[in-house]
Design a protein that fits this description.
binds acetamide, eight-stranded parallel beta sheet, TIM Barrel, 37% helix, eight-stranded mixed beta sheet, binds zinc ion
Amino acid sequence: MRYLLLTVFFLVSFVVIACGQIVFPSPNQVKIQKGNLNIGKNVSIYAEDTTTFYLSFFRTEVLRNIPVKWTKKASKAEIYWVTDSSLSSEAYKISINPRQMVIAASGKEGFTHAVQTLRQWVADSAGNLIFASVVISDSPRVPWRCFLLDSGRQYQKIATIKKYIDMASLLKMNYFHWHLTEGLGWRIEIKRYPRLAQIGGTVGKGEEQQGFYTQAEIREIVEYAAQRNITVVPEIDMPGHAEAALSAYPELSCFGLPVEVPEYGFTPNIFCAGKEEVLHFLKNVLDEVCTLFPSPYIHLGGDEAPKDNWNKCPDCQQRITAMNLKNSHDLQLWFSAQMAAYLKLKGRQAIFWGDVVYHDGYPLPDNTVIQWWNFRGHKDLALRNALRLRYPVICSSNYYTYLNFPLIPWKGYAKERTFDLKDVYYNNPSDKVIDEKNPLVLGMTCALWTDDGVTERMIDRRLFPRILALAEQMWHQGEVLDFTRFYQNILQREQWFGQMGFEFGPALKSGVKEDYKWD
Ligand code: ACM
Ligand code: ZN
Protein backbone atom coordinates (compact mmCIF):
# COMPACT_ATOMS: atom_id res chain seq x y z
CA MET A 1 0.00 0.00 0.00
CA ARG A 2 2.84 2.33 0.94
CA TYR A 3 4.52 1.66 -2.41
CA LEU A 4 1.27 2.24 -4.21
CA LEU A 5 0.86 5.62 -2.47
CA LEU A 6 4.46 6.54 -3.26
CA THR A 7 3.97 5.61 -6.90
CA VAL A 8 0.76 7.65 -7.10
CA PHE A 9 2.54 10.59 -5.44
CA PHE A 10 5.41 10.31 -7.91
CA LEU A 11 3.05 10.17 -10.90
CA VAL A 12 0.99 13.14 -9.67
CA SER A 13 4.14 15.23 -9.17
CA PHE A 14 5.34 14.26 -12.63
CA VAL A 15 2.08 15.39 -14.25
CA VAL A 16 2.10 18.63 -12.24
CA ILE A 17 5.71 19.33 -13.23
CA ALA A 18 5.08 18.46 -16.87
CA CYS A 19 2.21 20.96 -16.95
CA GLY A 20 4.47 23.53 -15.28
CA GLN A 21 6.79 23.20 -18.23
CA ILE A 22 4.29 24.58 -20.73
CA VAL A 23 4.89 28.28 -21.17
CA PHE A 24 3.01 30.67 -23.48
CA PRO A 25 4.57 32.07 -25.58
CA SER A 26 7.16 29.31 -25.94
CA PRO A 27 10.61 30.34 -24.75
CA ASN A 28 13.28 30.11 -27.42
CA GLN A 29 15.64 27.71 -25.70
CA VAL A 30 14.63 25.31 -22.97
CA LYS A 31 17.13 22.74 -21.74
CA ILE A 32 15.48 20.53 -19.14
CA GLN A 33 17.88 19.04 -16.58
CA LYS A 34 17.59 16.43 -13.87
CA GLY A 35 15.87 17.14 -10.57
CA ASN A 36 13.71 19.88 -9.09
CA LEU A 37 14.18 22.88 -6.90
CA ASN A 38 11.70 22.68 -4.01
CA ILE A 39 10.97 25.96 -2.32
CA GLY A 40 9.65 25.95 1.22
CA LYS A 41 9.00 28.69 3.73
CA ASN A 42 11.62 31.39 4.40
CA VAL A 43 13.17 31.09 1.00
CA SER A 44 16.42 33.05 0.78
CA ILE A 45 16.64 35.62 -2.01
CA TYR A 46 19.49 37.77 -3.23
CA ALA A 47 18.76 40.87 -5.31
CA GLU A 48 20.75 44.07 -5.72
CA ASP A 49 17.57 46.12 -5.38
CA THR A 50 14.84 44.56 -3.26
CA THR A 51 12.28 47.33 -3.95
CA THR A 52 11.50 46.75 -7.62
CA PHE A 53 7.99 46.04 -8.84
CA TYR A 54 9.03 42.84 -10.62
CA LEU A 55 10.31 41.42 -7.34
CA SER A 56 7.07 42.10 -5.50
CA PHE A 57 5.21 40.74 -8.52
CA PHE A 58 7.39 37.61 -8.34
CA ARG A 59 6.62 37.24 -4.66
CA THR A 60 2.85 37.41 -5.14
CA GLU A 61 2.49 35.60 -8.46
CA VAL A 62 5.21 32.97 -8.24
CA LEU A 63 6.03 32.52 -4.56
CA ARG A 64 2.38 32.97 -3.52
CA ASN A 65 3.41 35.33 -0.71
CA ILE A 66 5.42 32.83 1.32
CA PRO A 67 7.80 34.52 3.79
CA VAL A 68 11.22 35.34 2.34
CA LYS A 69 14.62 36.03 3.83
CA TRP A 70 16.81 38.56 2.00
CA THR A 71 20.42 37.51 1.95
CA LYS A 72 23.57 39.49 1.13
CA LYS A 73 25.40 36.36 -0.09
CA ALA A 74 24.47 35.58 -3.67
CA SER A 75 26.05 32.12 -3.63
CA LYS A 76 23.95 31.07 -0.62
CA ALA A 77 20.65 32.35 -1.96
CA GLU A 78 18.05 29.87 -3.19
CA ILE A 79 16.88 32.54 -5.62
CA TYR A 80 19.48 34.85 -7.08
CA TRP A 81 18.60 37.86 -9.28
CA VAL A 82 21.58 39.02 -11.28
CA THR A 83 21.96 41.98 -13.62
CA ASP A 84 23.73 40.90 -16.79
CA SER A 85 24.34 43.85 -19.09
CA SER A 86 25.48 41.54 -21.90
CA LEU A 87 21.83 40.50 -22.42
CA SER A 88 19.69 42.60 -24.79
CA SER A 89 17.03 44.77 -23.17
CA GLU A 90 14.14 42.27 -23.28
CA ALA A 91 16.17 39.07 -22.98
CA TYR A 92 16.37 36.96 -19.83
CA LYS A 93 17.92 33.74 -18.68
CA ILE A 94 16.66 31.42 -15.97
CA SER A 95 18.91 28.64 -14.65
CA ILE A 96 17.41 26.25 -12.13
CA ASN A 97 19.14 23.36 -10.37
CA PRO A 98 18.06 21.50 -7.22
CA ARG A 99 19.99 24.01 -5.07
CA GLN A 100 19.41 27.39 -6.69
CA MET A 101 17.51 29.46 -9.22
CA VAL A 102 19.43 32.22 -11.01
CA ILE A 103 17.47 34.84 -12.92
CA ALA A 104 19.51 37.09 -15.20
CA ALA A 105 18.50 40.09 -17.32
CA SER A 106 19.92 43.48 -18.15
CA GLY A 107 17.00 45.37 -16.62
CA LYS A 108 13.34 45.63 -15.76
CA GLU A 109 12.01 44.42 -19.13
CA GLY A 110 13.87 41.12 -19.12
CA PHE A 111 13.21 40.52 -15.42
CA THR A 112 9.48 41.10 -15.97
CA HIS A 113 9.45 38.55 -18.80
CA ALA A 114 11.29 36.11 -16.54
CA VAL A 115 8.60 36.49 -13.87
CA GLN A 116 5.91 35.83 -16.48
CA THR A 117 7.72 32.64 -17.48
CA LEU A 118 8.17 31.53 -13.88
CA ARG A 119 4.46 32.03 -13.13
CA GLN A 120 3.89 29.26 -15.65
CA TRP A 121 6.99 27.20 -14.86
CA VAL A 122 6.24 26.78 -11.17
CA ALA A 123 4.24 23.75 -10.21
CA ASP A 124 2.32 23.51 -6.99
CA SER A 125 2.10 20.08 -5.46
CA ALA A 126 0.67 19.51 -2.00
CA GLY A 127 1.41 23.15 -1.09
CA ASN A 128 5.04 23.03 -2.24
CA LEU A 129 6.48 25.23 -4.92
CA ILE A 130 8.39 23.02 -7.34
CA PHE A 131 10.57 24.21 -10.19
CA ALA A 132 11.90 21.67 -12.67
CA SER A 133 15.64 22.09 -13.25
CA VAL A 134 16.25 23.89 -16.52
CA VAL A 135 18.18 26.50 -18.43
CA ILE A 136 15.89 28.88 -20.32
CA SER A 137 17.39 31.49 -22.65
CA ASP A 138 14.81 33.75 -24.14
CA SER A 139 14.32 36.95 -26.11
CA PRO A 140 11.62 38.29 -28.45
CA ARG A 141 11.25 37.78 -32.18
CA VAL A 142 10.12 41.39 -32.81
CA PRO A 143 10.37 44.62 -30.84
CA TRP A 144 6.67 45.57 -31.25
CA ARG A 145 4.20 43.18 -29.65
CA CYS A 146 0.86 44.75 -28.98
CA PHE A 147 -2.76 44.27 -28.02
CA LEU A 148 -5.38 46.79 -29.18
CA LEU A 149 -8.60 47.29 -27.25
CA ASP A 150 -11.42 49.35 -28.72
CA SER A 151 -12.78 51.41 -25.82
CA GLY A 152 -14.45 53.80 -28.26
CA ARG A 153 -17.39 51.75 -29.49
CA GLN A 154 -17.84 50.17 -26.06
CA TYR A 155 -16.63 51.50 -22.75
CA GLN A 156 -14.84 49.07 -20.44
CA LYS A 157 -14.36 49.53 -16.71
CA ILE A 158 -10.90 50.40 -15.36
CA ALA A 159 -10.65 46.93 -13.81
CA THR A 160 -11.27 45.44 -17.25
CA ILE A 161 -8.61 47.61 -18.86
CA LYS A 162 -6.18 46.39 -16.18
CA LYS A 163 -7.19 42.78 -16.79
CA TYR A 164 -6.17 43.03 -20.45
CA ILE A 165 -2.96 44.85 -19.59
CA ASP A 166 -2.22 41.93 -17.26
CA MET A 167 -2.93 39.58 -20.14
CA ALA A 168 -0.67 41.47 -22.55
CA SER A 169 2.16 41.42 -20.02
CA LEU A 170 1.62 37.74 -19.27
CA LEU A 171 1.91 37.01 -23.00
CA LYS A 172 5.12 39.10 -23.13
CA MET A 173 3.66 41.87 -25.23
CA ASN A 174 5.09 45.33 -24.64
CA TYR A 175 2.50 47.77 -26.02
CA PHE A 176 -1.18 48.35 -25.32
CA HIS A 177 -2.86 50.26 -28.14
CA TRP A 178 -5.78 52.04 -26.52
CA HIS A 179 -8.38 53.02 -29.11
CA LEU A 180 -9.95 55.90 -27.21
CA THR A 181 -12.01 57.78 -29.77
CA GLU A 182 -14.66 56.58 -32.19
CA GLY A 183 -17.88 57.62 -33.83
CA LEU A 184 -19.65 55.89 -30.96
CA GLY A 185 -17.66 57.40 -28.10
CA TRP A 186 -14.94 59.84 -27.09
CA ARG A 187 -13.44 58.30 -23.94
CA ILE A 188 -10.58 60.55 -22.88
CA GLU A 189 -11.12 63.57 -20.65
CA ILE A 190 -9.63 66.71 -22.24
CA LYS A 191 -9.67 69.52 -19.68
CA ARG A 192 -9.66 72.29 -22.27
CA TYR A 193 -12.64 70.85 -24.14
CA PRO A 194 -14.79 69.15 -21.48
CA ARG A 195 -17.72 68.49 -23.81
CA LEU A 196 -15.61 65.99 -25.76
CA ALA A 197 -15.91 63.45 -22.96
CA GLN A 198 -19.10 64.70 -21.33
CA ILE A 199 -21.14 64.63 -24.54
CA GLY A 200 -18.89 62.45 -26.71
CA GLY A 201 -18.79 59.77 -23.98
CA THR A 202 -22.56 59.29 -24.03
CA VAL A 203 -23.54 59.32 -27.71
CA GLY A 204 -23.97 55.53 -27.89
CA LYS A 205 -27.27 54.03 -26.76
CA GLY A 206 -26.02 50.88 -25.04
CA GLU A 207 -25.51 50.44 -21.33
CA GLU A 208 -21.78 49.76 -21.86
CA GLN A 209 -21.40 52.67 -24.24
CA GLN A 210 -21.58 55.30 -21.54
CA GLY A 211 -18.56 56.86 -19.93
CA PHE A 212 -15.05 58.17 -20.29
CA TYR A 213 -11.71 57.90 -18.51
CA THR A 214 -10.73 60.82 -16.31
CA GLN A 215 -7.19 62.06 -16.51
CA ALA A 216 -6.53 60.64 -13.04
CA GLU A 217 -7.75 57.22 -14.21
CA ILE A 218 -5.61 57.42 -17.32
CA ARG A 219 -2.51 58.21 -15.24
CA GLU A 220 -3.35 55.21 -13.06
CA ILE A 221 -3.58 52.95 -16.13
CA VAL A 222 -0.34 54.26 -17.65
CA GLU A 223 1.48 53.61 -14.37
CA TYR A 224 -0.10 50.18 -13.89
CA ALA A 225 0.94 49.20 -17.40
CA ALA A 226 4.48 50.58 -17.08
CA GLN A 227 5.05 48.44 -13.99
CA ARG A 228 4.19 45.43 -16.12
CA ASN A 229 6.45 46.45 -18.98
CA ILE A 230 3.63 47.76 -21.16
CA THR A 231 3.70 51.13 -22.91
CA VAL A 232 0.21 52.52 -23.46
CA VAL A 233 -0.15 54.00 -26.95
CA PRO A 234 -3.28 56.16 -27.17
CA GLU A 235 -5.18 56.49 -30.42
CA ILE A 236 -6.97 59.72 -31.22
CA ASP A 237 -8.55 58.93 -34.57
CA MET A 238 -8.59 61.82 -37.10
CA PRO A 239 -9.99 63.03 -39.40
CA GLY A 240 -12.56 60.16 -39.52
CA HIS A 241 -14.39 58.10 -36.90
CA ALA A 242 -15.05 61.45 -35.23
CA GLU A 243 -18.85 61.62 -34.94
CA ALA A 244 -18.74 61.59 -31.11
CA ALA A 245 -16.34 64.55 -31.02
CA LEU A 246 -18.39 66.37 -33.65
CA SER A 247 -21.57 65.80 -31.61
CA ALA A 248 -19.89 67.82 -28.88
CA TYR A 249 -18.31 70.44 -31.18
CA PRO A 250 -20.19 70.44 -34.53
CA GLU A 251 -18.31 73.55 -35.63
CA LEU A 252 -15.26 71.32 -36.21
CA SER A 253 -16.97 69.61 -39.14
CA CYS A 254 -17.19 70.98 -42.68
CA PHE A 255 -20.76 72.28 -42.43
CA GLY A 256 -21.36 72.57 -38.67
CA LEU A 257 -24.57 70.55 -38.93
CA PRO A 258 -26.08 68.25 -36.28
CA VAL A 259 -24.31 64.91 -36.27
CA GLU A 260 -25.69 61.48 -36.91
CA VAL A 261 -23.88 58.89 -34.77
CA PRO A 262 -23.70 55.59 -36.64
CA GLU A 263 -24.51 52.46 -34.69
CA TYR A 264 -22.42 50.54 -37.24
CA GLY A 265 -19.59 51.73 -39.46
CA PHE A 266 -18.81 55.37 -40.09
CA THR A 267 -20.19 58.42 -41.90
CA PRO A 268 -18.67 61.18 -44.08
CA ASN A 269 -18.97 63.56 -41.12
CA ILE A 270 -15.26 63.99 -40.36
CA PHE A 271 -13.07 66.79 -38.98
CA CYS A 272 -12.77 69.64 -41.53
CA ALA A 273 -9.22 69.99 -42.83
CA GLY A 274 -9.82 73.45 -44.25
CA LYS A 275 -10.61 75.38 -41.07
CA GLU A 276 -7.66 76.71 -39.09
CA GLU A 277 -9.63 76.33 -35.81
CA VAL A 278 -9.81 72.56 -36.32
CA LEU A 279 -6.04 72.17 -36.53
CA HIS A 280 -5.65 74.43 -33.51
CA PHE A 281 -8.24 72.41 -31.56
CA LEU A 282 -6.63 69.05 -32.39
CA LYS A 283 -3.15 70.28 -31.50
CA ASN A 284 -4.48 71.42 -28.13
CA VAL A 285 -5.97 67.96 -27.65
CA LEU A 286 -2.59 66.42 -28.50
CA ASP A 287 -0.92 68.65 -25.90
CA GLU A 288 -3.01 67.01 -23.17
CA VAL A 289 -2.63 63.55 -24.72
CA CYS A 290 1.15 63.89 -24.70
CA THR A 291 1.13 65.07 -21.10
CA LEU A 292 -0.89 62.02 -20.06
CA PHE A 293 0.94 59.41 -22.13
CA PRO A 294 4.75 59.27 -22.01
CA SER A 295 4.71 56.79 -24.92
CA PRO A 296 7.20 57.58 -27.72
CA TYR A 297 4.33 56.72 -30.09
CA ILE A 298 0.96 58.46 -30.43
CA HIS A 299 -1.58 56.95 -32.85
CA LEU A 300 -3.43 59.46 -35.02
CA GLY A 301 -5.82 57.03 -36.76
CA GLY A 302 -6.40 58.10 -40.35
CA ASP A 303 -8.51 55.10 -41.41
CA GLU A 304 -11.83 55.13 -43.21
CA ALA A 305 -12.26 58.86 -43.76
CA PRO A 306 -14.81 59.32 -46.59
CA LYS A 307 -14.19 62.51 -48.56
CA ASP A 308 -17.79 63.36 -49.52
CA ASN A 309 -17.86 66.46 -47.28
CA TRP A 310 -14.32 67.56 -48.07
CA ASN A 311 -15.14 67.39 -51.78
CA LYS A 312 -17.98 69.89 -51.23
CA CYS A 313 -16.58 72.06 -48.44
CA PRO A 314 -15.33 75.51 -49.56
CA ASP A 315 -12.74 75.58 -46.76
CA CYS A 316 -11.32 72.16 -47.68
CA GLN A 317 -11.31 73.05 -51.38
CA GLN A 318 -9.60 76.35 -50.65
CA ARG A 319 -6.91 74.45 -48.69
CA ILE A 320 -6.38 72.09 -51.62
CA THR A 321 -5.83 75.06 -53.92
CA ALA A 322 -3.69 77.03 -51.48
CA MET A 323 -1.41 74.09 -50.76
CA ASN A 324 -1.31 72.96 -54.39
CA LEU A 325 -2.69 69.53 -53.46
CA LYS A 326 -3.98 66.96 -55.96
CA ASN A 327 -7.27 66.03 -54.36
CA SER A 328 -9.00 65.17 -51.06
CA HIS A 329 -6.74 62.18 -50.38
CA ASP A 330 -3.78 64.51 -50.75
CA LEU A 331 -5.56 66.86 -48.33
CA GLN A 332 -5.68 64.03 -45.80
CA LEU A 333 -1.94 63.57 -46.27
CA TRP A 334 -1.37 67.30 -45.77
CA PHE A 335 -3.60 67.28 -42.64
CA SER A 336 -1.85 64.16 -41.28
CA ALA A 337 1.55 65.70 -41.98
CA GLN A 338 0.63 68.79 -39.93
CA MET A 339 -0.34 66.63 -36.99
CA ALA A 340 2.67 64.34 -37.25
CA ALA A 341 4.98 67.37 -37.48
CA TYR A 342 3.37 68.71 -34.31
CA LEU A 343 4.13 65.43 -32.54
CA LYS A 344 7.66 65.54 -33.89
CA LEU A 345 8.20 68.84 -32.08
CA LYS A 346 7.33 66.94 -28.91
CA GLY A 347 9.76 64.14 -29.75
CA ARG A 348 7.02 61.60 -30.55
CA GLN A 349 6.40 59.24 -33.45
CA ALA A 350 3.01 59.40 -35.21
CA ILE A 351 1.32 56.13 -36.15
CA PHE A 352 -1.26 56.13 -38.96
CA TRP A 353 -3.47 53.39 -40.32
CA GLY A 354 -2.37 52.21 -43.77
CA ASP A 355 -5.14 54.16 -45.58
CA VAL A 356 -2.85 57.20 -45.74
CA VAL A 357 -0.41 55.41 -48.07
CA TYR A 358 -2.88 53.94 -50.55
CA HIS A 359 -1.86 56.77 -52.92
CA ASP A 360 1.34 58.79 -53.00
CA GLY A 361 1.13 62.52 -52.44
CA TYR A 362 2.04 65.16 -49.90
CA PRO A 363 4.96 63.71 -47.91
CA LEU A 364 4.53 62.63 -44.32
CA PRO A 365 7.38 63.57 -41.99
CA ASP A 366 10.08 61.13 -40.95
CA ASN A 367 8.49 60.39 -37.55
CA THR A 368 5.68 58.50 -39.36
CA VAL A 369 4.90 54.83 -38.68
CA ILE A 370 2.30 52.94 -40.73
CA GLN A 371 -0.01 50.31 -39.28
CA TRP A 372 -1.06 47.92 -42.02
CA TRP A 373 -4.55 46.52 -41.46
CA ASN A 374 -6.87 46.11 -44.45
CA PHE A 375 -5.68 42.82 -45.90
CA ARG A 376 -9.26 41.86 -46.67
CA GLY A 377 -9.86 44.93 -48.82
CA HIS A 378 -6.42 45.79 -50.20
CA LYS A 379 -4.14 42.82 -49.52
CA ASP A 380 -0.60 44.11 -48.88
CA LEU A 381 -0.95 47.47 -50.70
CA ALA A 382 -0.40 49.66 -47.62
CA LEU A 383 2.43 47.44 -46.39
CA ARG A 384 4.34 47.56 -49.70
CA ASN A 385 3.77 51.28 -50.21
CA ALA A 386 4.90 52.04 -46.67
CA LEU A 387 8.06 49.98 -47.08
CA ARG A 388 8.78 51.59 -50.45
CA LEU A 389 8.47 55.02 -48.80
CA ARG A 390 10.69 53.72 -45.96
CA TYR A 391 8.21 54.13 -43.13
CA PRO A 392 8.43 51.63 -40.27
CA VAL A 393 5.43 49.28 -40.29
CA ILE A 394 3.32 47.56 -37.66
CA CYS A 395 1.46 44.51 -38.98
CA SER A 396 -2.21 44.17 -38.06
CA SER A 397 -3.67 42.44 -41.10
CA ASN A 398 -7.37 41.99 -40.38
CA TYR A 399 -6.86 38.37 -41.53
CA TYR A 400 -5.95 37.02 -38.89
CA THR A 401 -5.11 39.45 -36.14
CA TYR A 402 -8.61 40.91 -35.62
CA LEU A 403 -9.86 38.80 -32.76
CA ASN A 404 -13.37 40.24 -32.96
CA PHE A 405 -13.77 38.21 -36.17
CA PRO A 406 -15.63 35.19 -34.80
CA LEU A 407 -15.19 31.45 -35.32
CA ILE A 408 -18.68 31.15 -36.71
CA PRO A 409 -20.87 33.73 -38.46
CA TRP A 410 -22.28 36.23 -36.00
CA LYS A 411 -24.15 39.51 -36.54
CA GLY A 412 -22.23 41.53 -39.20
CA TYR A 413 -19.60 38.83 -39.66
CA ALA A 414 -20.35 36.48 -42.54
CA LYS A 415 -18.58 33.15 -43.04
CA GLU A 416 -15.66 34.68 -44.96
CA ARG A 417 -14.92 36.87 -41.94
CA THR A 418 -14.40 33.99 -39.52
CA PHE A 419 -11.24 32.19 -38.47
CA ASP A 420 -10.04 29.66 -35.95
CA LEU A 421 -6.84 28.78 -34.10
CA LYS A 422 -5.44 26.74 -36.96
CA ASP A 423 -6.10 29.51 -39.51
CA VAL A 424 -4.16 32.04 -37.51
CA TYR A 425 -1.44 29.57 -36.55
CA TYR A 426 -0.64 28.70 -40.16
CA ASN A 427 -2.00 31.50 -42.35
CA ASN A 428 -1.58 34.84 -40.62
CA PRO A 429 -0.27 37.28 -43.29
CA SER A 430 1.32 39.44 -40.56
CA ASP A 431 3.35 36.45 -39.35
CA LYS A 432 4.57 35.78 -42.89
CA VAL A 433 5.64 39.41 -43.32
CA ILE A 434 7.68 39.22 -40.12
CA ASP A 435 9.44 36.24 -41.69
CA GLU A 436 10.74 38.57 -44.42
CA LYS A 437 13.02 40.06 -41.74
CA ASN A 438 12.80 43.61 -43.05
CA PRO A 439 14.15 45.84 -40.24
CA LEU A 440 11.40 48.38 -41.05
CA VAL A 441 8.81 45.85 -39.89
CA LEU A 442 8.54 46.56 -36.18
CA GLY A 443 6.21 43.73 -35.27
CA MET A 444 2.56 42.91 -34.78
CA THR A 445 -0.55 44.26 -33.09
CA CYS A 446 -3.58 42.06 -32.53
CA ALA A 447 -6.90 43.77 -32.03
CA LEU A 448 -10.18 43.41 -30.25
CA TRP A 449 -12.59 45.81 -31.92
CA THR A 450 -15.94 46.17 -30.21
CA ASP A 451 -18.13 46.65 -33.30
CA ASP A 452 -21.54 45.00 -33.18
CA GLY A 453 -21.84 45.39 -29.42
CA VAL A 454 -18.99 43.29 -28.05
CA THR A 455 -19.50 43.94 -24.36
CA GLU A 456 -17.03 43.09 -21.57
CA ARG A 457 -18.29 39.59 -20.89
CA MET A 458 -17.84 38.66 -24.57
CA ILE A 459 -14.18 39.64 -24.83
CA ASP A 460 -12.39 36.64 -23.30
CA ARG A 461 -13.90 34.02 -25.56
CA ARG A 462 -12.94 36.03 -28.64
CA LEU A 463 -9.35 36.35 -27.44
CA PHE A 464 -8.74 32.89 -26.04
CA PRO A 465 -7.28 30.67 -27.19
CA ARG A 466 -6.53 32.35 -30.55
CA ILE A 467 -4.44 35.11 -28.99
CA LEU A 468 -1.99 32.44 -27.82
CA ALA A 469 -1.10 31.76 -31.45
CA LEU A 470 -0.57 35.47 -32.05
CA ALA A 471 1.57 35.86 -28.93
CA GLU A 472 3.61 32.88 -30.10
CA GLN A 473 4.17 34.56 -33.48
CA MET A 474 5.17 37.83 -31.83
CA TRP A 475 7.62 36.27 -29.40
CA HIS A 476 8.91 32.87 -30.39
CA GLN A 477 11.82 32.78 -32.81
CA GLY A 478 12.81 29.14 -32.52
CA GLU A 479 11.41 26.30 -34.54
CA VAL A 480 7.63 26.50 -34.96
CA LEU A 481 5.85 23.75 -33.01
CA ASP A 482 3.66 21.56 -35.10
CA PHE A 483 0.01 22.54 -34.67
CA THR A 484 -1.11 19.35 -32.94
CA ARG A 485 1.53 19.84 -30.26
CA PHE A 486 0.69 23.55 -29.90
CA TYR A 487 -2.99 22.72 -29.52
CA GLN A 488 -2.22 20.00 -26.95
CA ASN A 489 -0.25 22.55 -24.95
CA ILE A 490 -3.22 24.89 -25.06
CA LEU A 491 -5.55 22.20 -23.77
CA GLN A 492 -3.16 21.51 -20.91
CA ARG A 493 -2.94 25.18 -19.97
CA GLU A 494 -6.63 26.09 -20.37
CA GLN A 495 -7.47 25.45 -16.75
CA TRP A 496 -4.54 27.57 -15.56
CA PHE A 497 -5.62 30.50 -17.73
CA GLY A 498 -9.09 30.00 -16.27
CA GLN A 499 -7.60 30.38 -12.78
CA MET A 500 -5.95 33.59 -13.98
CA GLY A 501 -9.41 34.84 -14.94
CA PHE A 502 -9.43 34.21 -18.70
CA GLU A 503 -12.30 32.19 -20.10
CA PHE A 504 -11.66 30.22 -23.29
CA GLY A 505 -13.94 30.14 -26.28
CA PRO A 506 -13.77 27.39 -28.86
CA ALA A 507 -10.44 26.84 -30.62
CA LEU A 508 -11.46 25.08 -33.82
CA LYS A 509 -14.40 25.52 -36.15
CA SER A 510 -14.84 21.77 -36.23
CA GLY A 511 -15.34 21.80 -32.46
CA VAL A 512 -18.06 24.44 -32.33
CA LYS A 513 -21.38 22.92 -31.35
CA GLU A 514 -24.37 23.87 -33.46
CA ASP A 515 -26.11 25.63 -30.59
CA TYR A 516 -22.97 27.54 -29.50
CA LYS A 517 -23.80 31.16 -28.67
CA TRP A 518 -21.04 33.54 -29.69
CA ASP A 519 -22.51 36.41 -27.66
C1 ACM B 1 -9.58 49.63 -38.86
O1 ACM B 1 -9.85 48.44 -38.68
N1 ACM B 1 -10.50 50.46 -39.34
C2 ACM B 1 -8.27 50.16 -38.55
ZN1 ZN C 1 -14.05 71.12 -44.71
